[in-house]
Amino acid sequence: LPTLAGQAVTLRELRAADAPSLLALLTTEEVSRFISPPPTTVEGFERFIAWTHHERAAGRYVCFAIVPRGLDTAVGIFQVRSLEPGFCIGEWGFAMGSPFWGSGIFVEGARLVVDFAFSSIGARRLEARSAVANGRGNGALRKIGAVQEGILRRSFLRDGVYHDQALWGILAEDWALQRMPQHPASATN
Q1: Is the sign of the CA dihedral 98, 102, 108, 111 positive or negative?
Q2: Which DSSP string corresponds to 26-37?
Q3: Chain centroid to CA 180: how far?
Q4: Is 62 in a helix, a strand, or coil?
Q5: For position 88, what pLDDT does the model report?
Q6: What proportions of the chain, in percent to the nearest 5, are helix, strand and coil?
Q7: What element of type H or E holds 139?
Q8: Which residues partner with 77 through β-bridges?
Q9: pLDDT of residue 183
Q10: Residue 69 DSSP symbol
Q11: How far is CA 102 from the centre of its chain?
Q12: What values do phi and psi take at 101, rounded to 5?
């Protein structure tokens, strides 16, 4: 997995040494309430990290560690899972420790991941699901240009309760247009 570097964040493959920081940051109630239950031990995160390597090698999944400038360990993850052979359609998700919310590293990292999915893996469509009640997550998806395509009623089970999820999509052609430099209209005199 290549390392993707921005000004404030580096995205790299997860390492076993990331397990303690991921446990500390992704298992808090404010982070974990809107995601599938994360592992509950360092060993559980180590097994998850080993699984990500296996799935990447099989061509079904990529998972990047979110590492802010100045740190060595992960504070969260971006993941992309193939929904059909060849990654033409992928589902992506993210989780990041709350001390880093609002820091700008999500937007920078998300752009790096989406660029990678479209330009390197060859995806033509990325989908994301976010609990309807997750205002911050839905706002982040909207901020990077994802389009809410619908509501998946009672599609996410958490603590014995089914929750509605918003389905978000980004198409490769829309992303390319969004990423094009904006030039002011030429004056014609």
Answers
A1: positive
A2: HSSHHHHTTSSP
A3: 22
A4: strand
A5: 95
A6: 40, 30, 30
A7: helix 135-143
A8: 65, 95
A9: 52
A10: T
A11: 15
A12: -65, 140
Residues of the chain with pLDDT under 70: 182-189
Q: For residue 45, give both structure tokens.
A: 């995160």
Tokens linked to 51: 């699984």
Q: Which amino acid is at 172?
A: A
User: So what's the pLDDT on residue 55?
Assistant: 96
Task: State the pLDDT at residue 187.
Answer: 46
Q: Which residues of 43-60 are buried (b: 16+ CB within 10 A; e: fewer)?
A: eebbebbeebbebeeeee
3-class secondary structure, 57 = helix
Q: State the DSSP string of 159-171.
A: TTEEEEEEEEEEE
Q: Tell me 179's DSSP state.
A: H
Asked whether 31 and 97 are in contact (CB, 8 A), the reply is yes
The angle at the Cα of 162, spanning 159 to 167, to the nearest 5 degrees, equals 120
Single-letter amino acid code for the residue at 129:
R
Both tokens of 164, joined, read 């509605």
The residue count for the chain: 189
Residue of 47, 46, 96 lying closest to 71 (CA atoms): 96
**Please, are residues 117 and 47 in contact by the beta-carbon 8 Å criterion?**
no
Scanning the structure block, which residue is given the tokens 């060859």?
Answer: 122
